[in-house]
Amino acid sequence: MLTLKDNFDRKFEYLRLSITDECNFKCNYCLPDGYQRSHQNEFLSHQEIKHLVSAFTELGTKKVRITGGEPSLRKDFPAIIESISNFDGIQKIATTTNGYRLQKDAQHWFDAGLDAINVSVDSLDANTFHLITGKNIFQKVMDGVSACVDAGYKQVKINSVLMKGVNDKDLDLYINWIKTQPIQLRFIELMQTGDNAEFFDKHHLSGLWIKEKLLNEGWVQKIPLSHDGPAQIFAHDEFQGEIGLIMPYSKDFCKSCNRLRVSSTGKLHLCLFGEQGVDLRDLLVDASQKEALKERILLALNDKKESHYLQSGNTGVTPHLASIGG
Ligand code: SAM
Ligand code: SF4
Question: What atom of ligand 2 comes closest to residue 26's alpha carbon?
Fold first, then answer.
């Protein structure tokens, strides 16, 4: 069986697939002025998504994460989940969502075949949540998180971007919360994108600060599993939940890269940062193009760079992460 490997011996069994750029939130670090359409292209159709995932599974993809923008804004989101989960090679299908529709739809998505869910909750304080996201719906999102636990998802994770002077004061609240909740908190270090340079300079907080605090408080770093990717995971005997740190500016972050990305308009991105992407769309028209599609993907992988070079201030061509599926 073919596998997706690059010149640095990294294996890519994980596809992050963006199905829309659109979003109904205005997160201050991502889309502070709300979503503005910047292209005329249609988003990938359900049929194109099926052709794409079919080729990726034949190249060894085992896990797909559906992301965006806000993926649940698409009316055919449950149907897309169902189609992807029907591919034989797919062992896990996950999504990342802002939680807007969770309370209502967590169970439907689970029934459609979704295994795992990451919900972005950038503060545990309702006012700060409102300030960050532009939406005064903290309790609704938290009820959505409970709905996921009740529905029986294998994995419920909470993503939070901790920012200096914005929500860093919430760290202890988060940690206390998972004493009794079997949830993995994932603190994602704020990344600089094309659009947020000034915001980044003011609010970037190194994940090393959190790591030091955790180690001082008796948390223990777990030995990484191959599917953890670049996250560093910490556990503590007295806590039911775990903490994952995503520190893109740390040394060696890219060494454990295990993912490829396809944008909502069908471009293959080898990295979150730094390139225009390889257009796959002309090969998503019908199933007979699958071999050519696989060849193009394999060929593109030769160009994957060793690092994102974010440390050197590179933000590449990525204006914000909603445009590529963070
Ligand atoms: N709308 C969905 C959501 O917010 O969960 C999915 C898309 S969003 C781009 C995916 C993840 O990227 C979210 O957890 C968000 O917090 C994170 N993100 C967006 N911009 C970021 C940035 N500049 N630095 C770090 N994380 C970012
Ligand atoms: Fe929307 Fe997600 Fe970006 Fe927030 S982080 S603006 S929810 S795409």
Answer: 6
